[in-house]
# Entry
Amino acid sequence: MSSIVEITKINSNNESTRLRLLDMTANPIEKMAYVARISHRSHETSKRTDIELLKDIIRWGHLSVFEHAYASIEISGVSRACTHQLVRHRHFSVMQESQRYVKPNGTVPVTPETILDNEKSLGIYDKFMEQSFNTYNQLLSLGIPKEDARMVLTNATPTKLVLTGNFRTWREFIHKRDIKAAQEEIRALACEIREILSAATAPFLWKYEI
# Structure
């Protein structure tokens, strides 16, 4: 399956968060506008363009129209702490890399900016993370199954997943997470997802207000 849009961001500890748009509704603006016109049979009378109509839909808050288009995005290099927050957006369909069956891809944890900016805390953090990964590998060498050895891994362990959701779900995620109150990692992710969806569709679809 070929990507439509792909973004790779390098974070402060030289690790990458990678996003790839795997699949999306073909001609989503045209489809959502068609759906919006069904209720009033305005296919026959409306002279507004599809974009004009959808901008009105956003202003009116009639966002059920946005449930008729979807996108699937592959995300890698984010922490387990981040994905614990992602899965709280319950309207997404989620498939995540399994720690029961596979080892973490590498031993470099995701490190928050607040820790990176504090040399003393970074030393403590790195030491603990190294101990966590070493303990995990020691347990595996003793024949402990991955599903049990994973108990010593931390929320900073990088992971990979695919999220599929309709456009209303993606809008809600972006508007709830791309805000100052959100944790830094998921806020940056929401911003990148807005960027990837805007490039594949139209920026106005992802704005809170028009």
